[in-house]
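Following up on my earlier thread - several people asked me to post the actual chain instead of describing it. Fair enough. Here it is, all 154 residues.
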Amino acid sequence: LEVCSFTGYKVYPSRGRTYIRGDGKTFHFLDSKTESMFHQNKNPRKLAWTPIFRKIHRKGISEEVAKKRTRRNVKYSRAIVGLSLDAINARRNEKPEVRSAARLEAIAKLKAARKEEAAKKKAARAAAAPQGGNQKVSKMQARGAPTKVKATSR
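Reply from S.P.:
Thanks for posting it. Predicted structure:
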Protein backbone atom coordinates (compact mmCIF):
# COMPACT_ATOMS: atom_id res chain seq x y z
CA LEU A 1 0.00 0.00 0.00
CA GLU A 2 1.29 3.41 -0.99
CA VAL A 3 0.13 6.69 0.51
CA CYS A 4 -1.07 9.54 -1.72
CA SER A 5 1.58 12.28 -1.71
CA PHE A 6 -1.08 14.99 -1.95
CA THR A 7 -3.98 13.87 0.25
CA GLY A 8 -2.48 11.22 2.51
CA TYR A 9 -5.13 8.64 1.60
CA LYS A 10 -4.13 4.99 1.03
CA VAL A 11 -3.55 4.02 -2.61
CA TYR A 12 -4.46 0.38 -3.15
CA PRO A 13 -2.71 -1.84 -5.73
CA SER A 14 -3.71 -1.25 -9.37
CA ARG A 15 -5.10 2.15 -8.40
CA GLY A 16 -3.70 5.67 -8.71
CA ARG A 17 -0.83 7.15 -10.64
CA THR A 18 2.90 7.42 -10.05
CA TYR A 19 4.88 10.48 -11.03
CA ILE A 20 8.68 10.53 -11.04
CA ARG A 21 10.21 13.98 -11.00
CA GLY A 22 13.41 14.90 -12.83
CA ASP A 23 15.48 14.61 -9.67
CA GLY A 24 14.28 11.03 -9.21
CA LYS A 25 11.78 11.62 -6.37
CA THR A 26 8.67 9.45 -6.69
CA PHE A 27 5.14 10.68 -5.95
CA HIS A 28 2.08 8.43 -5.68
CA PHE A 29 -1.36 9.91 -6.33
CA LEU A 30 -4.82 8.56 -5.57
CA ASP A 31 -6.31 9.72 -8.87
CA SER A 32 -5.90 12.23 -11.68
CA LYS A 33 -7.57 14.95 -9.59
CA THR A 34 -4.90 14.84 -6.89
CA GLU A 35 -2.15 14.62 -9.50
CA SER A 36 -3.56 17.66 -11.30
CA MET A 37 -3.75 19.63 -8.04
CA PHE A 38 -0.14 18.69 -7.25
CA HIS A 39 1.06 19.88 -10.67
CA GLN A 40 -0.84 23.17 -10.18
CA ASN A 41 1.16 23.64 -6.95
CA LYS A 42 -2.04 23.73 -4.90
CA ASN A 43 -1.64 23.55 -1.15
CA PRO A 44 -3.61 20.61 0.30
CA ARG A 45 -3.97 22.51 3.58
CA LYS A 46 -6.17 25.06 1.77
CA LEU A 47 -8.44 22.60 -0.04
CA ALA A 48 -11.49 21.81 2.08
CA TRP A 49 -11.83 18.19 0.86
CA THR A 50 -8.37 17.01 1.97
CA PRO A 51 -7.83 15.24 5.30
CA ILE A 52 -5.03 17.68 6.18
CA PHE A 53 -7.46 20.63 5.88
CA ARG A 54 -10.06 18.79 7.96
CA LYS A 55 -7.53 18.01 10.66
CA ILE A 56 -6.25 21.61 10.82
CA HIS A 57 -9.80 23.06 10.94
CA ARG A 58 -11.08 20.41 13.38
CA LYS A 59 -13.81 19.02 11.16
CA GLY A 60 -15.65 15.79 11.85
CA ILE A 61 -14.56 15.35 15.46
CA SER A 62 -17.57 13.39 16.71
CA GLU A 63 -17.33 13.62 20.49
CA GLU A 64 -16.72 17.19 21.56
CA VAL A 65 -14.33 17.30 24.46
CA ALA A 66 -15.61 19.50 27.27
CA LYS A 67 -13.85 22.84 27.08
CA LYS A 68 -11.02 23.00 29.59
CA ARG A 69 -11.78 25.59 32.21
CA THR A 70 -8.96 27.96 33.00
CA ARG A 71 -8.31 28.85 36.60
CA ARG A 72 -8.50 32.50 37.49
CA ASN A 73 -5.62 33.79 39.54
CA VAL A 74 -6.78 35.32 42.80
CA LYS A 75 -4.75 38.38 43.70
CA TYR A 76 -4.08 39.12 47.33
CA SER A 77 -1.57 41.32 49.10
CA ARG A 78 0.95 40.01 51.56
CA ALA A 79 3.54 41.74 53.72
CA ILE A 80 7.16 41.66 52.54
CA VAL A 81 10.11 41.19 54.88
CA GLY A 82 10.93 44.62 56.33
CA LEU A 83 7.58 46.17 55.29
CA SER A 84 4.20 45.62 56.88
CA LEU A 85 1.00 45.40 54.83
CA ASP A 86 -0.13 48.77 56.25
CA ALA A 87 3.09 50.42 55.06
CA ILE A 88 2.68 48.91 51.59
CA ASN A 89 -0.93 50.10 51.32
CA ALA A 90 0.02 53.59 52.56
CA ARG A 91 2.75 53.73 49.91
CA ARG A 92 0.32 52.57 47.20
CA ASN A 93 -2.34 55.12 48.17
CA GLU A 94 -0.12 58.20 48.57
CA LYS A 95 -0.56 60.99 46.06
CA PRO A 96 1.88 61.44 43.14
CA GLU A 97 2.88 64.93 44.38
CA VAL A 98 3.95 63.53 47.74
CA ARG A 99 5.84 60.71 46.05
CA SER A 100 7.69 63.06 43.66
CA ALA A 101 8.60 65.41 46.55
CA ALA A 102 10.04 62.47 48.51
CA ARG A 103 11.98 61.36 45.44
CA LEU A 104 13.45 64.86 44.90
CA GLU A 105 14.44 65.04 48.57
CA ALA A 106 16.17 61.64 48.38
CA ILE A 107 18.03 62.71 45.22
CA ALA A 108 19.19 65.95 46.87
CA LYS A 109 20.42 64.02 49.92
CA LEU A 110 22.34 61.58 47.68
CA LYS A 111 23.92 64.43 45.69
CA ALA A 112 25.07 66.13 48.93
CA ALA A 113 26.61 62.87 50.17
CA ARG A 114 28.46 62.40 46.86
CA LYS A 115 29.75 66.00 46.94
CA GLU A 116 31.01 65.50 50.47
CA GLU A 117 32.74 62.25 49.49
CA ALA A 118 34.41 63.95 46.50
CA ALA A 119 35.65 66.77 48.76
CA LYS A 120 37.15 64.21 51.18
CA LYS A 121 38.92 62.45 48.31
CA LYS A 122 40.30 65.76 47.02
CA ALA A 123 41.64 66.65 50.47
CA ALA A 124 43.27 63.23 50.84
CA ARG A 125 44.86 63.53 47.42
CA ALA A 126 46.21 67.00 48.23
CA ALA A 127 47.72 65.70 51.49
CA ALA A 128 49.34 62.70 49.77
CA ALA A 129 50.85 64.76 46.92
CA PRO A 130 54.57 65.56 47.24
CA GLN A 131 55.31 69.04 48.60
CA GLY A 132 58.29 69.64 46.32
CA GLY A 133 56.15 71.21 43.57
CA ASN A 134 55.12 69.73 40.29
CA GLN A 135 57.82 67.35 39.08
CA LYS A 136 57.47 66.26 35.49
CA VAL A 137 57.08 62.49 35.25
CA SER A 138 56.81 60.57 32.00
CA LYS A 139 54.04 58.07 31.46
CA MET A 140 56.44 55.14 31.68
CA GLN A 141 57.87 56.38 34.99
CA ALA A 142 54.36 56.83 36.34
CA ARG A 143 53.68 53.18 35.50
CA GLY A 144 56.76 52.13 37.44
CA ALA A 145 59.17 51.34 34.56
CA PRO A 146 62.86 51.25 35.45
CA THR A 147 64.88 54.28 34.34
CA LYS A 148 67.10 53.81 31.32
CA VAL A 149 70.81 53.25 31.96
CA LYS A 150 72.98 55.56 29.89
CA ALA A 151 75.47 53.96 27.53
CA THR A 152 79.09 54.37 28.76
CA SER A 153 80.95 52.49 26.01
CA ARG A 154 81.38 55.50 23.72
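DSSP finds five helices and four strands in the chain. That should answer part of your original question.
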